[in-house]
Amino acid sequence: MEQVPVNRTALLSRRTRLDLAHRGLDLLERKRDRLMEEFRRAAQQALAEAGQLDRTAAAGRRALADAEIADGPEAVGSAALAARRDLALSARPSSVMGVRIADIEFEALGRPRFGRGYTAGGSSPHIDAAAAGFEAIIEQTLRLAAQEVRLRRLSEEIGRTTRRVNALDTVIIPRLRQEIARIASQMEERERQDRFRLKRFKKRRPGFRSGVAR
Q: What burial letters (b/e) apply to 144-156, b meaning 16+ CB within 10 Å?
């Protein structure tokens, strides 16, 4: 345990540290409130994206079933192989109260009928509808994933900030207050003892009577 010196310098140092701790606590609480506000906004967006994904996925599955019934699984599978491609994703950094968050960005995934790699003879209106449906599913999945990445980063920072707030509020600030009170009390006790010793010393001096020295 740290030995706290009992002197005016130590007292002023603890008071300065206590003031800084209060300022830090205020800043951290404001940061946490702002992060929680952003977390709630992102959570609402994620819920909306998840609901949209459910609807988009249901429509995509229906389109796929219709295509398999109308054109056969082989034709649908062949068109799917021809339509395969890589997706270009990028991360744009943004900041919330100094917290860096990567926002996932991508171009719209919908393509024209003959921009999917298959020929007119290898497609049909049903296959086109299924392809468009699954492009929409992938795009919606990416939107939801972007929100989940944001939520995870915000959640981690909220937890870290909350731990720092708790440490200041329940450990550091109370300890500094106790040290300030202890130092001030011990200094006052020393001053009383010094005054008492001074009075005794004066009384013992030759010629000292009734508080007046001859």
A: bebbbbbbebbee
